[in-house]
Amino acid sequence: MVSRPFFMTLPGYPGRMDEKEVLNDLEYLQQTYPGEVRRCQRRIAEILDKYDYEGSMIYDEYPDRLSLYRIADTIGKILEREAGKVSGDLIQVLVCDEIYKRRHGGRRGMIAFL
Q1: pTM across the whole model
Q2: Most buried one in 13, 37, 93, 98, CB count within 10 A?
């Protein structure tokens, strides 16, 4: 039997969160993103709608890394035309966050708390 520290046995300890709680926590923390990042996140969610269909590669068990990079690159070009230069790394992270939320039943785009 594995012994756990007392705090890990408490109800509501993050180590014991179910998937819905994890998504809610992620969405809540995304509220703290700086304004420009939130704007990018909203736009990325809108653009990813065209990739959100049954059988889409974003729902593959192990999405192809190159395809994810291509999606992020395409979105980066769109954002650059609309709002100027945006970090490619930031776009890649926000794309992966949005895909994660969609794959696990989260709400599309920005959070309802706003």
Answers
A1: 0.70
A2: 98
